[in-house]
Write a structure and sequence with these properties.
The chain has 117 residues and is an all-alpha fold. It has four helices and no strands.
Length: 117
């Protein structure tokens, strides 16, 4: 079984989830069940899928869950961009979160490619 805590992709995904929760606390109350929930779900999904993939015994299952994590990370990039354009985030929050949002799928993609290659 793989140890997810040793993966750079998991470290980034965990940081991403923590930062998303912190940055979305200031979103409008009317978005609590809308964009706030969607963004938080996607962020948690990235880390959760990495953990679940690591717990699987087959390489195919591992790759499947890493691909799911990658999809969630890309989904999150759009949602964060939308939140910023709607005025729910200031420039500093967007830059900080955007940085991790960009790096996480890059690292995941590298891991996926290395496993396939």
């Amino acid at each position: 079984m793989r140890d997810h805590t040793k993966l750079r992709a998991f470290e980034l995904a965990d940081t991403l989830a923590m930062e998303v929760y912190q940055r979305t606390m200031v979103f409008p109350k009317e978005e609590r069940f809308g964009l706030t929930a969607q963004i938080r779900r996607a962020a948690v999904s990235v880390a959760s899928n990495i953990v679940e993939g690591c717990a699987r015994h087959s390489e195919a299952d591992y790759l499947h869950f890493l691909n799911m994590a990658y999809g969630s990370a890309r989904e999150l990039q759009y949602q964060v961009s939308l939140a910023y354009r709607l005025g729910y985030m200031n420039d500093e929050s967007y830059r900080s979160l955007g940085q991790v949002c960009k790096e996480t799928p890059k690292v995941l993609n590298g891991l996926i490619r290395s496993l396939r290659g």
